[in-house]
Amino acid sequence: MTISADHTAHPDQASQAPAEDALSEAAKKFGITAEDYMLPARHQIEMVDPDGRLKPQGEQGTEPGHEYPLPGDEELLAAYEQLVVGRRVNDQNSALVRQGRMAVYPSSHGQEACQVAAALCLSKGDWMFPTYRDAVAVMTRGVDPVQVMTIFRGDWHGGFDPLQHKVGIQCTPLTTQLLHAVGVAHAAKLRGEDTVVLAMCGDGATSEGDFHEALNFAAVFHLPVIFFVQNNKYAISVPLAHQSVAPSLAHKAVGYGMAGERVDGNDVVALLAVLDRAVALCRGGSGPLLVEANTYRMQAHTNADDDTRYRQNSEVAEWRAKDPVNRMWTYLTDRGLLDDDGEARIREKAEAVATQLRDGLSEDVPVDPQELFRHVFEKTTPQLKEQSALLADELARDAAASQNPNAQEAGK
Questions:
Q1: Cα 78 vs. chain centroid, distance in angstroms?
Q2: Which residues are the active-site residues?
Q3: Predicted confidence (pLDDT) per residue in 1-12, tens digit
Q4: Which helix (H) or strand (E) holds 127?
Q5: What is the predicted pLDDT for the residue at 412?
Q6: How many Å from the N-terminal Cα to the C-terminal Cα in the chain?
Q7: Contacts by 369-378, CB closer than 8 A, 24 or more apart
Q8: Mean of the per-residue pLDDT values for the chain?
Q9: Other CB atoms within 10 A of residue 398 CB
Q10: d(CA 344, CA 285)
Q11: Distance, C-alpha 221 to centroid of its chain
Q12: Cα–Cα dist 271/269, whole Å
């Protein structure tokens, strides 16, 4: 099916694209040109440095049209709690893979700030479309941890109801979720719904054709989508320098006629500030935005990857010093917002989630072979009914034979 733009406008109005009007209006709100609105700030937005100290406002990377107030204390405390839980989940899941209780797990250890901010910036009615590495974001959105991990132990389904949580199933095919996000945003706009869609991807996804198609469609139809790129510097083993020579991935936004911004992806304070404003702009009708978060994948791509073959330990150590959890802990304790009791409560919650995962993923899952046929089509086809009957007959004969092995032997 092809969806085309409405070309029935008056001839005097047809020469000026609605998206162009919207860009000009958005830029006027900040007193800057449309070009300055679309281009990211000259320096990435960073509010809290790697040592956990609040940077002077003049050193945060802000400039006219790219100004961000500090998030509120309650939002920051909630974010820190989710950071700690997310880190514990990442480490617990890596252990579960080694124990054979999960088939695979793409860890986001080191990227938890991006995960948490992506979920917390959205309202209940908004949608999130995650990648396979965004399990912590899905959990932060409110999905049961065991349900989130169902897909990683090799089950046939995603583990949770996307419509209930407004979260798409985690996609293993690269970048397909961006097209799904754009489709939902387009449907919401046609229905007149007050919905913002956040579509997550990595730096490798920006090299895919689906990335271009999604951003171009969103810009042309002026859709309320935030494309959130977690630039962790590697597309599996391919470094960013071999993927793109653009000044930054955020600079790609201007080519589509949308606003771009880049932010320190290990600074949850800056992430919340940038994404909160992005959501507000989208909801206010300013159109799609592209946000690039500079972060780092501290662990291997998955448990099947040997990251020592393509990066140096010294590089990993450099990024370990920028750890988002430690950075936020220092910032909150220095401000007197987090004490020992608060820290103990958060750590206890994180351990409870880890226990829930261990217990839930240790349970045997009942296997029903007939599920193979139930969810292929809305209405079961004659061919599927025939296959289902054949399988049922074979299973029944196997069961009978196992109960009476002598009869099976006599029949030979």
A1: 18
A2: 297, 301, 310
A3: 344 444 444 444
A4: strand 127-129
A5: 53
A6: 57
A7: 369/395, 371/156, 372/156, 375/157
A8: 92
A9: 11
A10: 42
A11: 23
A12: 5
